[in-house]
């Protein structure tokens, strides 16, 4: 069971439990021990703001401990420890802040945090007859660099030094702790490929020997000046290992005393590391009021090896579930009501579960700006496509916004102003000639100005396809005559149109239909096989029909002559009787 953040009263020993989160504000009302689960090596920096302790995590989170440095009646402030077990009897890493100075509430003063290993948090709590082991040392504000009971202090703090030395003498030999391996004690294929770092901390300072045993292989190192240590276990050591194994660490102090810690690690080379990512939201991670009113699509990628892996998206207290596609991509639509009430920085959390039940989590902070005017543009002509028939007589563009706001619709540089009514509805009419000139544009602009001067602008996508649609058939075989030799092979029928790439062309010859698409120049071509011409031996109509992206059509015909019968030659009798005499 994972331990949560705790605030433990030094006087009453009462526990207050707080759920871990990316950014946390801890309200400390009395001198306490702040217990953080995990590894102190995950901390980027410590700083002091007034009496608050601000902890910056390497992963980007922030923990602020309000009134941490506020002294109690014994002259002591609160203490910070890190641990990895819910059992208070397990060792903890105690952080001691050096060179404490007062700081203004708005000024952050960076602190140096040295560490020591304690067998439990008990020495930091008050008992009935003891002001606490650390009270004289920390209450006096002594700047000390300490590890494993080694204290440097000036002569004016002999009493504090004596207490710390007595505490060191009370220890039962050295101690050592193995930190979580790969962060979660699960080693997957990606971890093994580059070797695995195993690290930890101990009560012993520089140069004390540490031996790590992994699957009968031993790796030696020494502690640094803070008692920390690490070893690299190469790839070949992990080859052939599958399932749970025990990693053992043994430290030997200067006197030859030893301490041991062991940690169970799961090796699973059948799965890869699991990842999930969130793409930038609305392109810039800022959701404005117009985007929020219309709803916003959240999307991203993952390491999922195919479709069907569950993705859970959390935002604004709501959950949305979806699944990855065949490429590991995912997306969800977050409706307008979720964005209502959100204003400022908002966290999006995504959790993906892969095929083998392993999970990955990602977080992205965005800014929601829901103050100011909103704009909604209703679909123009129902589908945001204006064709020739719809443009005739002009087109109404309408929508909604702040009541009584000024609205300007801009189409191809031409402005059409109006004012929203008391319900926020607005509408403008764009005449046919403007739409004809705007053929080919891909959006219009709508600008809104409220009475207090606040403005908003959006681009609304639209396709304008006006003007005559046309299609033609080029001369077939060059002379519009298809002879038997040409008919015996396939014949190419081609032509041009007024439409761009991708518009459908249907060619009809007799009862046969052949389909193709226009290219980017509006050209088209079909091959008519020999069997189509069989049985035709006269004038024949070729009909070509093109349909544009708005659904408008144009049709043309071309007459061709098909001569598939075999020609005959007759020779008249020569000289009347086919006899040629001397005369």
UniProtKB/TrEMBL annotation:
Stretch list, region Disordered: 155-176
One of the Pfam families matching this protein, by short name: BapA_N
Biased composition annotated in UniProt, kind: Basic and acidic residues: 155-173
Domain spans labelled Biofilm-associated protein BapA-like prefix-like: 3-134
InterPro entries recorded: BapA-like_prefix-like, Ig-like_fold
NCBIfam families: biofilm_BapA_N (NF033677), Ca_tandemer (NF033510)
Protein name (database record): Biofilm-associated protein BapA-like prefix-like domain-containing protein
């Amino acid at each position: 069971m994972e331990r949560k953040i705790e605030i433990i009263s030094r006087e009453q020993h009462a526990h207050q439990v707080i759920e871990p989160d990316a950014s946390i504000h801890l309200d400390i009302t009395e001198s306490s021990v702040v217990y953080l689960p995990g590894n102190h090596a995950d901390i980027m920096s410590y700083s002091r703001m007034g009496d608050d302790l601000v902890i910056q995590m390497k992963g980007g989170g922030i923990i602020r401990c309000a009134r941490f440095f506020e002294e109690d009646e014994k002259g002591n402030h609160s203490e910070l420890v890190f641990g990895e077990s819910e059992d208070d009897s397990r060792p903890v890493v105690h952080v001691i802040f050096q060179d404490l100075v007062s700081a203004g509430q708005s000024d952050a003063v960076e602190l140096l945090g040295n560490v020591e290993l304690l067998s439990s948090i008990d020495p930091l709590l008050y008992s009935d007859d003891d002001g606490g082991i650390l009270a004289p040392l920390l209450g006096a504000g002594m700047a000390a660099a300490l590890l494993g009971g080694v204290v440097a202090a000036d002569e004016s703090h002999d009493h504090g030094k004596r207490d710390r030395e007595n505490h060191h003498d009370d220890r039962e030999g050295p101690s050592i702790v193995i930190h979580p391996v790969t962060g979660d004690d699960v080693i997957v294929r990606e971890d093994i490929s580059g070797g695995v770092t195993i690290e930890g901390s101990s009560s012993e300072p520089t140069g004390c020997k540490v031996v790590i045993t992994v699957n009968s292989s031993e790796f030696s190192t020494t502690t640094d000046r803070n008692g920390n240590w690490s070893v690299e276990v190469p790839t070949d050591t992990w080859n052939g290992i599958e399932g749970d194994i025990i990693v053992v660490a043994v430290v030997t102090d200067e006197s030859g005393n030893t301490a041991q810690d062991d940690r169970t690690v799961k090796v699973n080379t059948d799965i890869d590391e699991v990842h999930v990512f969130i793409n930038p939201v609305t392109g810039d991670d800022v959701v404005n009021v117009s985007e929020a009113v219309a709803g916003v699509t959240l999307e991203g990628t993952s390491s999922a090896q195919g479709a069907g892996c569950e993705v859970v998206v959390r935002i604004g207290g709501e959950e949305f579930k979806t699944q990855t596609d065949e490429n590991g991509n995912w997306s969800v639509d977050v409706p307008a009501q979720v964005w209502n009430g959100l204003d400022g920085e908002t966290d999006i959390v995504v959790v993906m579960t892969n095929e083998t039940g392993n999970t990955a989590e990602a977080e992205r902070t965005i800014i929601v700006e829901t103050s100011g005017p909103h704009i909604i543009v209703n679909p123009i002509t129902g589908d945001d496509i204006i064709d020739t028939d719809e443009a005739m007589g002009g087109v109404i563009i309408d929508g909604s916004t702040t009541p009584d706001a000024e609205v300007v619709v801009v189409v191809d540089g031409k402005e059409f102003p109006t004012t929203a009514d008391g319900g926020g509805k607005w509408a403008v009419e764009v005449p046919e000639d403007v739409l004809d000139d705007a053929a080919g544009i891909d959006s219009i602009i709508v600008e809104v100005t409220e009475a207090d001067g606040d403005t908003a602008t959006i681009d609304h996508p639209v396709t304008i396809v006006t003007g005559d649609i046309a299609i033609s058939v080029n001369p077939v075989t060059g002379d519009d005559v298809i002879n038997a030799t040409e008919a015996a092979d396939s014949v190419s029928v081609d032509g041009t149109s007024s439409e761009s790439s991708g518009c459908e062309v249907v060619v009809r010859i007799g009862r046969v239909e052949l389909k193709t698409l226009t290219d980017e120049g509006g050209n088209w071509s079909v091959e008519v096989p020999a069997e189509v011409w069989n049985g035709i031996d006269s004038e024949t109509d070729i009909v070509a029909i093109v349909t544009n992206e708005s659904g408008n059509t144009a049709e043309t015909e071309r007459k061709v002559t098909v001569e598939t019968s075999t020609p005959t030659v007759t020779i008249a009798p020569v000289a009347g009787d086919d006899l040629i005499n001397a005369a």
